[in-house]
Amino acid sequence: MSDCNAVLKALQPIFQEQGMTETVHNWEDHGYLVTYIKKNGSFANLRIHPHGLVLVDLQSYNDDMKGREEVDQLLNKVEERMKELFHGNIKRVKRLPAILRGGVIDRYWPTADGRLVEYDIDEVVYDEDSPFQNIKILHSKQFGNILILSGDVNLAESDLAYTQAIMGSGKEDYTGKEVLILGGGDGGSNIDQMVIDGCKKHMRKTCGDVLDNLKGECYQVLIEDCIPVLKRYAKEGRMFDYVINDLTAVPISTSPEEDSTWEFLRLILDLSMKVLKQDGKYFTQGNCINLTDALTLYEEQLSRLYCPVEFSKETVCVPSYMELWVFYTIWKKQTGI
Amino acid sequence: MSDCNAVLKALQPIFQEQGMTETVHNWEDHGYLVTYIKKNGSFANLRIHPHGLVLVDLQSYNDDMKGREEVDQLLNKVEERMKELFHGNIKRVKRLPAILRGGVIDRYWPTADGRLVEYDIDEVVYDEDSPFQNIKILHSKQFGNILILSGDVNLAESDLAYTQAIMGSGKEDYTGKEVLILGGGDGGSNIDQMVIDGCKKHMRKTCGDVLDNLKGECYQVLIEDCIPVLKRYAKEGRMFDYVINDLTAVPISTSPEEDSTWEFLRLILDLSMKVLKQDGKYFTQGNCINLTDALTLYEEQLSRLYCPVEFSKETVCVPSYMELWVFYTIWKKQTGI
Prior knowledge:
The structure is a homodimer.
Chain A: H1 2-17, E1 21-26, E2 32-37, E3 43-48, E4 54-59, H2 65-85, E5 121-129, E6 134-140, E7 144-149, E8 152-156, H3 160-166, E9 179-183, H4 193-202, H5 204-207, H6 226-236, E10 240-246, H7 259-274, E11 276-288, H8 292-302, E12 309-317, E13 324-332
Parallel strand pairs in A: 9-10, 10-11
Antiparallel strand pairs in A: 1-2, 2-3, 3-4, 5-6, 6-7, 7-8, 11-13, 12-13
Helix pairs in contact in A: 1-2, 6-7
């Protein structure tokens, strides 16, 4: 505790010089929290822990470059004073970039495995609520326009790697083949017309002119629930060489009460297998590589389909995801050979 | 201001229920800062801005899962109460993942363009100070071991894309060619023996067994300053088909007072061109794609070499970088043809 007090005494003048008003809380057994308040609405928290951790948080409104220089100068002083106090014997010094909150542009879109990542977003291109979800298209300096559905980064203009992976990584010859794509509202079919409207205007690098006309020489886009369509195809006996499942709803839950999500996923898989030719292939995205429990649960579903299947998986770096992503190839087990 | 007061009155009970001690600061024209202190050393800041922004920061020591659930419950209550107060008319609600500070493992390694990104680090594999720099090798769940030199992410085991890019993206045939690699301490030559020691033990997926013996059938690793070596080669008239510059020191400064860095870089480039065959190629990494000023300055240096050169560039996604990276190919301008 004498150390805590020494740190407090050493750092106090730095904040007081700034014309800040001080409020000290002393826990005795948990160190100090000192709050410094400036007249312009900004403030600082100085948290001194007894075991040697000192945290300084600064919060201000209307950040400008002048403000950043002031912050750097203040933190330089804190660092110098601490090094003097402990004769340079400091284990680690770390400054984190400022977190920008409350502005028009939100730069923080956590990864699927829950890590905080800041994107270089500089423009809100599209932001609408559809009956199904919130649809954002944000511009990233490096990734181009990014489609974000209810907070999940779906696809950016930089993400050709995603499209290549979900099409079989260049190993397939699609010439003359029948292909069924589920989902893919960023350039394919989707139940949410508003996703298509946003993408056809702002994600042309990914979807080209495919969404301008829902029917072309060799393709047709259906904007409806895929379940009845799959059931109809199955009943009609219509078969495909490839089924590509790019539906946005990925179950990442591993809790048993969300069984219905897994059942829904199995329903889609079963119906897809029914319309897939015996030597056909089913491609889909899985999840981020770190959600191993969710990936295992997904693979368990594959052993519970109406017909036996085999699968392979591939890990792909999709630029705008900031995490590695697992893609699956699934095919019907060849029997009696 | 009446809104500020209404928010304060609505949220107060939530924190008071937690047995927290309240300190209110009222700026009049800048809203409120309310500090809530718990007996166990944790605390909360509630910052209410007059224009409608409400920020809640919670800070605690020794975070456990129980603590996280409590935090979620508290934030759920804040969100509910705010929605009640404004009859659901709230523009945006955002929760950011917790920032973990002061632990053994540091998960925050900002990008070259200064963005805050959290890595999935779960182990400190190596952490030493050499006479030249701090050398860390940290284990990432998805990227494998990552080499971090003085805070800069250099290379991870996942980053084959980096090595491919700096070798010409698979378009070169190295059979029987003379190759000079500058830098590349993660698997090549470097002045810092300690980088080699760390990498040869912990980065074997990138360097293989190349660093176990500094001399092999077709290669030799020199651990010394590359300038005198380049000068000697130039004097001896030794020429290479390829020069690969993978030196860690990338000048990202754009301030004029750091001219000497650019001069050093030009010296290396000039010497490299002297030992490069007339039809040879020089590969190097540039910078992250967002640091456009630094990239432009680099390209300007290329027009100031002793011989005229041409260049092309390629943008590559290196998984562990979390930002796109620019690589250069430079060659001597063919004259008189």
